[in-house]
Design goal:
Elements: H1 34-54, H2 61-68, H3 72-79, H4 82-103, H5 114-131, H6 133-139, H7 150-165, H8 172-182, H9 185-194, H10 199-212
Helix pairs in contact: 1-2, 2-3, 3-4, 4-5, 4-6, 5-7, 5-10, 7-8
Length: about 220
């Protein structure tokens, strides 16, 4: 959690027809030996069971150690702290989303026009954030970190690239930040759970923003 983050990816050139974006972990890349990978999977399986049973708020390093049948020190050595554990739990879920928009079928994946992919991406991301909002909110101990983790930079680069390809009106990176902010987990949770706003209204808000940027459905 304390290792320096890699520099942000170079923004794609406007003339690039394809993206070379690759899967990015929530907490950064990590290469593990086979035995270490097995131990990590064992701990994450135990943590996932606890998460489903007691929620993210009550998930502790001690409870994960007990559920996995290992010492507490093993969990701390693997994940450093509770935030590291929560981020590791998010990695698998994030990888599924990334696979869908990087290499999955249309309309979100390659093979569909950029405008169609953009309109499909927002609702999919919003549902992903809603499904994992408790885990996402619990892992955000540093508000500024949201903008620097590899997974978020990948989302930003992906949306900015599609905006360029769709010839959106405006600065692609700034437009991408605005779009992603409209479906960010805390805002979606506040509007749907505390304000009672239908999810469909938020989806239409994403489509409306894209239309205002000159990206028609």
């Amino acid at each position: 959690m304390t290792a320096p983050l890699p520099p942000p990816p170079r923004p794609p050139d406007p003339g690039e027809a394809r993206t070379s974006l690759t899967l990015a972990a929530v907490g950064g890349p990590e290469l593990l030996r086979a035995d270490a990978a097995r131990n990590r999977a064992l701990l994450l399986d135990a943590a996932s069971r606890l998460l489903a049973r007691c929620g993210a708020t009550n998930l502790t390093m001690e409870s994960v150690a007990a559920a996995a049948g290992v010492g507490k020190g093993t969990v701390f050595r693997r994940f450093k702290d509770r935030t590291g554990l929560l981020i590791a739990l998010l990695d698998h879920r994030e990888a599924l989303l990334q696979a869908a928009f990087l290499s999955g079928p249309p309309p979100m994946g390659p093979g569909a026009p950029a405008a169609e992919r953009l309109h499909a991406f927002g609702p999919a991301l919003m549902h992903h954030e809603r499904d994992h909002h408790e885990l996402i909110l619990a892992s955000r101990t540093d508000p500024l970190r949201t903008y620097t983790v590899p997974a978020q930079r990948l989302r930003l680069s992906h949306v900015a690239l599609l905006l360029r390809q769709a010839h959106a009106q405006g600065e692609p990176e700034l437009l991408a930040h605005t779009l992603l902010g409209s479906v960010d987990a805390p805002l979606v949770h506040h509007l749907t759970c505390e304000r009672g706003m239908p999810a469909g209204r938020l989806e239409e808000g994403w489509h409306d923003l894209l239309t205002r940027y000159g990206v028609a459905r």
